Amino acid sequence: MNYIVINDKKSTEISGLLISSLPPITKPKMRTSSEEIDGRDGDFITKLGYSAYDKEIEIGLHGDYDVDEVLRYFDSEGTIIFSNEPDKYYKFTQTDSIDLERLLRFRKAKVKFHVQPFKYSSVDDAQVFNNSVLEIPKGTYGDRYATAKVSEDGTINLEVRKVNRTLEVYIPVKCHCAGGGIFTVVASAKNNRTGDGSEYVGIRVCKDAPNNPQTIGGSIMYMSDSVDVNQWQNFNGIDRDFNYLYLYIQPQHKLDIDFRVIVVPTTDYFEVFNKGNIYAKPILKIRGSGLLDLYCGIGHYQTSASTRVRMNVRLIDELIIDVNEMNAYMIENDKVVYKNRLVLGDYNNLTIQSGHSYIYWRGTDEFVGQITAEEYSRWI
């Protein structure tokens, strides 16, 4: 049976709606311009890019249908899947109206979708590079004087009552750094709502006890409001398994803060595979901080021109770069806030070619905790 899926809603969910016919699978046309020069045979052809085009389906009504529900279903824009290409989706805009008179009289009508030239995988998950080797299980730790609640995404909310003594919280963690190398602990606090601030909270990632010499960084680290703080440790030749995230709260402070702690190896690239038959312009979601150069290429030592991403953001925040739309933005209080001034250089340098490619970054004072790549495979 034919069907379509508009913005994740299947046509079979609309009572009385039938998809009578589907559009053929075609390729978009290449837009060109031509120039003729006197005294030269032929002309010059310049390729200008692929054209958007229309895909048309025929629909029918039967049984207990609600024509208003049918019209609302098609009065939209976003993504669409056709059942003759169930593993691909198109981006579309509805520009033509449905012939309502014909639909009501004959219970048939044609619906035209204006689709962009490229199609994307509807079955591939987003590819995620996670630069953290620290696992903090979701849960609540501490006591009624100092309580740490770990959420699903690793954000920790610490609430502290004002008392005349030092408070301590142990959060069991899994932290294993395979192999040698230099690793960094990075902590960032924000949303300080009450109290004197996160600078009165010390942290350690430690083995069994906070005074154990095998503590990452070798000493306690005090957080700071809205500023990343970090310590580093050379892991060569030492036990690389750590069991606790230890929190130390100084006396006489009432606190309510959110923060993250991430342990980061020195990895500076990850691999993506574009399964499509043409280059892709992905959506990259970057969680991190600092100033770095971000690249895409077929080898992770490529030294072509860069797109520089100024990620002056906290670890809890996420910078989204839509390469195809040439936009950078963040989601703040459920609203899109554009951050294009944070991106210097040509967005097209983040294009992913068909086949194996690398996304990698370089800088002198940067931290990348996580990168998520979406729409990294593309077809015509």
Account of the 3D structure:
The protein has 380 residues and is mainly β. The protein has three domains: 4-119, Elongation Factor Tu (Ef-tu), domain 3, CATH 2.40.30; 134-264, Sandwich (Jelly Rolls), CATH 2.60.120.260; 268-379, Jelly Rolls. Helices cover 4% and strands 52% of the residues. It is built from two helices and 30 strands. Strands 10, 22, 23, 24, 25, 26, 27, 28 and 29 form a nine-stranded antiparallel beta sheet that branches. A hairpin with a 5-residue loop joins β7 (77-82) and β8.
**Separate helix tally:** 2
CATH superfamily grouping of the largest domain: Galactose-binding domain-like
What gyration radius follows from the Cα positions, in whole Å? Answer: 27 Å
User: Which structural class is indicated by helix and strand composition?
Assistant: mainly beta
The CATH topology of the largest domain corresponds to Jelly Rolls
Which key phrases capture this entry?
380 residues, mainly beta, Elongation Factor Tu (Ef-tu), domain 3, Jelly Rolls, 3 domains, nine-stranded antiparallel beta sheet, eight-stranded antiparallel beta sheet, 30 strands, globular
Compile the SSE list and pairings.
Elements: E1 4-6, E2 9-10, E3 17-21, E4 30-35, E5 44-50, E6 53-61, H1 67-74, E7 77-82, E8 88-93, H2 100-106, E9 108-121, E10 127-130, E11 134-135, E12 139-142, E13 146-150, E14 156-160, E15 167-176, E16 182-194, E17 201-206, E18 221-222, E19 229-234, E20 241-249, E21 255-264, E22 269-274, E23 283-297, E24 307-311, E25 319-322, E26 327-332, E27 335-338, E28 343-344, E29 355-374, E30 378-379
